[in-house]
């Protein structure tokens, strides 16, 4: 059709590669795709790499994980180990554990693949977390990207699920105790907890079903969901085009950066190999999860200093922080003849619930407070949104307190302090830490804004000290060039938005609450310097320098 | 410097305000002028960068060779040791790292030093145009109209009902994932079998423990007699039945009414499964008579019948009633008088069941 309608002489490829490309192109329309994407512009900044790290870690996880499935046997049948790791020779264990040992000791490169897989998993969740922090602190979640932020949150949860299901597979002592903790948490769920536990484990803990079930979740369901979410995520990135940092020449109507081909593609593609190389280096040099040291799962022994993988730590820490008995009040009590175990239920569900609820709803909360319905493609520098930045740091601090609590015993033994004291301090920080973090962060952000303002008004310090005739010493400031100056003054500083009446002329109670939050959000603000102010400030300097000139000419 | 603070504090002393009406704003000066790199101006520098990229790709080739060498040259035969595996792992990893980092840094260096580094600006377009929206609305209206779903509520409502019910079998079909819990969690292997009391035996070898072997201050990890001989569900039973056995000075034990004959001569036995979330309470502090759970640091005081004195557990460890049989071996006189391990919704029900 195209040949007859567009040109009288149909295109004929001359080289072999050309003919092949043309064959494909005529059938899939690759030219159009290339025309659209070949030179698509991507902004460049080091902080945009965290998402890439996550993506590449996931690719590495798929590759190393596929290798591992060829040798792993997720059976909980009993066997006697006969591999080459002599300390465990003839020890009774599950087939799953035995095959994990075989991967480590009898498959060439198996240990390396296991370590690559585990390190990549840790890096995957970590880079997702840091990427989300970047998106939060720069305000990249604002319209039109709210839904993509939610997809990112779902990815974080899926990544944790993938990590946890995978962590339990080798059926070693450490992961078995982890499963036992999960079982205890599930049993604390009112009404249906016991049933869920029996259905998950196929009967009583530990049973003989759980490893096989986790295996299917780990290698099929969870990765498929992650892949689906990544596709949606990247599709939306293409639709929205990437955000960019503020600066001269950048605004909400354009996107400034490098074209996809060749520079951006080369950098991003090369970066995949760098991520792979770094993970390989870690797998080569640093042991991770030496399951052979732990032994097979047995409900009786446990090693001191047990730790979950880092991303589950905050839930484990919350479990540790919760007191079971305060004075004589027991957090477990009997209600209508049934047992309610709040000392497990509350810490397991509430902090994680709050964190993820706030995370998922935050774009809409801020949108409601600011009544800002514009599209934002230029990022905020964190200092220019002091309240948001303070909220983020407060939440992060809260998370970190719980995370630290997961290592309370190690903190106590490493620093030779009492374990009980560590717990008491962390309990206090659980409540006070986020508040302190909020206040300090907000002050720091405002101080940085004022520093920016000062530099915009009076120029940068030159380090040149001049003595004035009357004996005063001053430091000479040099004015900034237009581009640097614009970076410091080209931002919005919204003022609190007072309550507004609705169409009936009534100021609703909800609107009043919004106005109060808006005041809380924007009350403390540093406005960007205006041209008039800079003019005035320069006049001030000129005067000084003028008098200096004069005094010298005397 | 200090005299440069501008604006007057309005609310909390931190506000510096510009002209509130903000009529004036800085004009965007546009993209800064492009600055040439050394490699753009000096052919020697460009040649040098080219050589560096080639060397990095060469490093990658060497890395791949290291990997292949380590894979085929190091034999994991029967006589290999942990050291062999460790060396092979190191070489395989270093080989991969060189291979990957060589390619990665080479390409990035190539892009940064030799490819054009002009930043370009591209217009953004609206994500949705009003024209598209109207067209879409028309299409949806047409589709809805053609199905006639608005005019035929009977069809709509029966379809809704059918679709709402259809997933139920998909939920029901998971009913065989596990058995009903019933009262399985309420019982352990310690219950006397055919009138014969179970002996306390050592974990893991299963040899019985004589009361005279238990000296003051000692502690034993205990499993019930016959556990090791189980063919099925051994770990399930062990997960409920493991016990810690300790002997204290009888005077230091506070014994509550009804438990007078649960211990023997200062020897007491408690469930090893933490009442918090079920970790083994494996650490016994001999001096303080405290039991500590290494998972979440719940601490139980042995002298006060394992009352919780610190940490997230809320309930004391269940005590196993013990006595001595005719041959001097320790036996359990009955099962635990309450369910062991982490609490669950039906726990109190089960406790009443056991004691009725």
From TrEMBL, chain A:
Residues 20-246 form the Cytochrome b/b6 N-terminal region profile domain. One of its GO terms (biological process) is respiratory electron transport chain. The keyword rRNA-binding does not apply. Keywords: Cell membrane, Electron transport, Heme, Iron, Membrane, Metal-binding, Respiratory chain, Translocase, Transmembrane, Transmembrane helix, Transport. It holds the Pfam family Cytochrom_B_N_2. One of its GO terms (molecular function) is oxidoreductase activity. GO terms for cellular component: plasma membrane. It is found in: Cell membrane. It catalyses: a quinol + 2 Fe(III)-[cytochrome c](out) = a quinone + 2 Fe(II)-[cytochrome c](out) + 2 H(+)(out). Gene3D superfamilies: Cytochrome Bc1 Complex, Chain C. Its cofactor is heme. Residues 535-548 have a biased composition (Basic and acidic residues). The chain crosses the membrane at residues 53-72, 118-137, 149-169, 181-203, 215-239, 271-292, 344-365, 385-404, 424-441. It is a multi-pass membrane protein. Its main location: membrane. The keyword Transcription regulation does not apply. Residues 533-554 are annotated as: Disordered. Its EC number is 7.1.1.8. PANTHER family: CYTOCHROME B. This is Cytochrome bc1 complex cytochrome b subunit.
Automatic annotation (TrEMBL), chain B:
Residues 1-38 are annotated as: Disordered. One of its GO terms (cellular component) is plasma membrane. CDD domains: Rieske (cd03467). It is a multi-pass membrane protein. GO terms for molecular function: 2 iron, 2 sulfur cluster binding; metal ion binding; monooxygenase activity; oxidoreductase activity, acting on paired donors, with incorporation or reduction of molecular oxygen. It comes from the Bacteria. Keywords: 2Fe-2S, Cell membrane, Disulfide bond, Electron transport, Iron, Iron-sulfur, Membrane, Metal-binding, Oxidoreductase, Respiratory chain, Transmembrane, Transmembrane helix, Transport. SUPFAM superfamilies: ISP domain. It is found in: Cell membrane. The keyword Disulfide bond applies. Residues 267-331 form the Rieske domain. The keyword Protein biosynthesis does not apply. The chain crosses the membrane at residues 53-74, 90-111, 159-178. Belongs to the Rieske iron-sulfur protein family. Iron-sulfur subunit of the cytochrome bc1 complex, an essential component of the respiratory electron transport chain required for ATP synthesis. The bc1 complex catalyzes the oxidation of menaquinol and the reduction of cytochrome c in the respiratory chain. The bc1 complex operates through a Q-cycle mechanism that couples electron transfer to generation of the proton gradient that drives ATP synthesis. This is Cytochrome bc1 complex Rieske iron-sulfur subunit. It comes from Arthrobacter cupressi.
């Amino acid at each position: 059709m195209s040949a007859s309608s567009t040109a009288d002489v149909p295109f004929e490829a001359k080289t072999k590669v050309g003919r092949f490309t043309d064959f494909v192109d005529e059938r899939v329309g690759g030219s159009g795709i290339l025309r659209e994407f070949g030179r698509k512009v991507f902004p460049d900044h080091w902080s945009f790499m965290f998402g890439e790290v996550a993506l590449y870690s996931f690719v590495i996880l798929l590759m190393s994980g596929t290798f591992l499935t060829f040798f792993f046997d997720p059976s909980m049948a009993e066997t006697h180990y006969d591999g080459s790791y002599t300390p465990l020779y003839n020890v009774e264990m599950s087939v799953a554990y035995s095959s994990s040992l075989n991967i480590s000791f009898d498959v060439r490169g198996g240990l390396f693949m296991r370590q690559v897989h585990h390190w990549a998993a840790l890096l995957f969740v970590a880079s997702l977390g840091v990427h989300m922090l970047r998106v939060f602190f720069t305000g990249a979640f604002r319209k039109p990207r709210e839904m993509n932020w939610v997809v990112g949150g779902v990815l974080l949860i899926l990544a944790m699920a993938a990590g946890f299901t995978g962590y339990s597979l080798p059926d070693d002592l450490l992961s078995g105790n982890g499963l036992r903790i999960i079982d205890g948490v599930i049993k604390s769920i009112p009404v249906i907890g016991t049933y869920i536990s029996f259905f998950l484990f196929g009967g009583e803990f530990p049973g003989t079903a759980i490893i096989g079930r986790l295996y299917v979740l780990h290698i099929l369901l969870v990765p498929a969901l992650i892949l689906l979410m990544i596709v949606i995520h990247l599709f939306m990135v293409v639709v929205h085009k990437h955000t960019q940092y503020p600066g001269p020449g950048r605004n909400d109507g354009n996107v400034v950066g490098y074209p996809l081909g060749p520079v951006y593609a080369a950098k991003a593609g090369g970066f995949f190999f760098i991520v792979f190389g770094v993970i390989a280096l870690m797998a080569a040099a640093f042991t991770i999860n030496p399951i052979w040291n732990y032994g097979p799962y047995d409900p009786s022994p446990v090693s001191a200093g047990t730790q979950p993988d880092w991303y589950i730590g905050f839930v484990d820490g919350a479990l540790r922080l919760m007191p079971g008995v305060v004075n004589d009040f027991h957090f477990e009590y009997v209600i209508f003849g049934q047992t309610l175990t709040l000392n497990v239920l509350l810490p397991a569900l509430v902090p994680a619930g709050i964190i993820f609820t706030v995370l998922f709803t935050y774009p809409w909360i801020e949108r409601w407070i600011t009544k800002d319905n514009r599209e934002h493609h230029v990022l905020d520098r964190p200092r220019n949104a002091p309240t948001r930045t303070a909220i983020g740091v407060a939440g992060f601090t809260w998370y970190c307190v719980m995370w630290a609590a997961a290592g309370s015993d190690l903190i106590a033994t490493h620093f030779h302090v009492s374990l009980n004291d560590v717990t008491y301090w962390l309990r206090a920080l659980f409540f006070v830490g986020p508040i302190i973090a909020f206040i300090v962060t907000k002050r720091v952000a405002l101080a940085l804004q004022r520093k920016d303002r000062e530099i915009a008004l009076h120029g940068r310090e030159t380090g040149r000290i001049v003595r004035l005739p009357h004996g005063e010493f001053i430091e000479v400031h040099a004015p900034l060039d237009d581009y640097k100056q614009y970076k410091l003054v080209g931002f919005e500083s919204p003022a609190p938005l007072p309550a507004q009446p609705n169409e009936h002329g009534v100021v609703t109670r909800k609107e009043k609450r919004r106005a109060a939050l808006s005041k809380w959000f924007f009350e403390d603000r540093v406005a960007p310097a205006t041209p008039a102010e800079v003019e005035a400030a320069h006049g001030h300097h000129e005067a000084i320098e003028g008098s200096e000139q004069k005094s010298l000419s005397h | 410097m200090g005299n440069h603070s501008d604006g007057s504090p309005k609310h909390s002393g931190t506000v510096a305000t510009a002209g509130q009406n903000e009529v004036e704003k800085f004009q965007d000066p546009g993209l800064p002028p492009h600055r040439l790199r050394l490699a753009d101006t000096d052919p020697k520098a460009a040649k040098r960068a080219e050589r560096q990229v080639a060397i990095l790709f060469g490093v990658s080739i060497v890395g791949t060779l290291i990997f292949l060498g380590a894979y085929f040259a190091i034999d994991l035969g029967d006589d290999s040791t942990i050291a062999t595996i460790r060396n092979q792992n190191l070489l395989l990893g270093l080989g991969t790292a060189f291979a990957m980092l060589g390619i990665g840094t080479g390409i990035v260096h190539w892009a940064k030093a030799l490819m054009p580094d002009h930043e370009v600006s591209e217009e953004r377009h609206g994500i949705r145009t009003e024209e598209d929206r109207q067209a879409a609305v028309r299409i949806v209206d047409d589709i809805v109209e053609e199905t006639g779903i608005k005019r035929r509520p009977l069809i709509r409502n029966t379809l809704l009902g059918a679709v709402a019910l259809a997933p139920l079998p998909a939920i029901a079909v998971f009913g065989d994932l596990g058995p009903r819990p019933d009262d399985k969690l309420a019982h352990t292997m310690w219950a006397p079998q055919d009138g014969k009391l179970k002996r306390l035996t050592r974990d893991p070898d299963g040899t019985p423990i004589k009361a005279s072997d238990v000296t003051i201050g000692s502690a034993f990890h205990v499993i019930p007699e016959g556990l090791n001989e189980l063919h099925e569900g051994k770990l399930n039973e062990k997960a409920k039945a493991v016990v810690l056995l300790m002997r204290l000075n009888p005077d230091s034990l506070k014994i509550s009414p009804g438990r007078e004959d649960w211990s023997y001569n200062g020897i007491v036995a408690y469930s090893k499964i933490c009442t918090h979330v079920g970790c083994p309470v494996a650490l016994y502090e001999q001096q303080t008579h405290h039991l500590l759970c290494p998972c979440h640091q719940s601490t139980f005081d042995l002298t006060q019948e394992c009352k919780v004195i610190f940490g997230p557990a809320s309930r004391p460890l269940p005590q196993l009633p013990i006595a001595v049989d005719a041959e001097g071996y320790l036996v359990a006189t009955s099962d635990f008088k309450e369910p062991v391990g982490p609490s669950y919704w039906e726990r109190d029900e089960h406790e009443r069941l056991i004691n009725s």
